[in-house]
Design brief:
The protein is α+β, with helices and mostly antiparallel strands. It contains 6 helices and 6 strands, in the order H-H-H-E-E-E-E-H-E-E-H-H. It folds into 2 domains: 35 residues; 165 residues. It has a 6-stranded antiparallel beta sheet, with helices on one face. Strand 1 and strand 2 form a beta hairpin.
Length: 213
């Protein structure tokens, strides 16, 4: 939604009330006024679009994810625990773009540990995952998987394939469920990746047949 600068004359009491509410929800005065006017006039703002997507995603997401408190309209964070000694946590953070173009947003997956062996295992899995997703996405006309990997952090752009809000949430939930199931499978038996990788690839292919994201 394109924005321009306008001058408005408002009552001091109104501005004080707007400022209190803006501070409460963590946004700016102008953004809150924009949201109020948009709601009154039935316009769709980026915040409304993102809120709708996250609302659907909350309904769709699997029970293995623990949704964290949201601190931003554009951000949703979930956590799972690995079925591995000490049960280290993995955070999944979905951040939506206000003005989506080629991508609707970014997924960031982070293992919460200082254990070098666990980080190495995490990186080994996601190097495999990147190669696998790249091969599968090429069948749909994408040259590579839009992602990066650093020590213990996997970042992936979420493709914009023209889905509506509910479909976008469904596509994200399918992808997260598939990814988390694959991560859990790997950490339960890291040495057996070659043996069960055909099953993981078939499961990801099935996910792509529903939605590409």
């Amino acid at each position: 939604m394109k924005k321009s600068v306008y001058s408005l004359v408002l009552a001091d009491d109104v501005i004080r009330a707007v400022d209190r509410e803006a501070a409460r929800i963590g946004t700016s005065r102008s953004n809150l006024i924009n949201q109020i006017l948009a709601a009154q006039l039935s316009c769709i703002t980026p915040e409304m679009r993102m809120r709708d997507i996250f609302g659907f995603l909350t309904d769709f997401i699997g029970s293995s994810f623990q949704i964290q408190q949201q601190t931003s309209a554009s951000l949703m964070t979930m956590r799972t625990a690995l079925e591995y000694k000490y049960r280290p946590a993995i955070n999944y953070r979905v951040e939506l773009d206000r003005s989506p173009d080629g991508y609707i947003g970014t997924l960031r997956v982070h293992i919460r540990t200082q254990n070098a062996n666990l980080i190495e295992m995490f990186n080994t899995f996601f190097l495999y995952r990147i190669a696998m997703e790249t091969a599968q996405l090429r069948l749909y006309g994408y040259e590579s998987c839009p992602c990066t990997l650093t020590a213990g952090i996997f970042t992936r752009k979420l493709l914009n394939t023209g889905l509506d809000g509910q479909q976008t949430a469904q596509a994200i939930s399918f992808y997260l469920d598939n990814l988390n199931n694959s991560v859990q499978t790997y950490f339960s038996d890291p040495s057996g990746l070659r043996e069960y990788s055909p099953r993981l690839e078939a499961q990801y292919k099935s996910t792509l047949e529903k939605y590409v994201i």
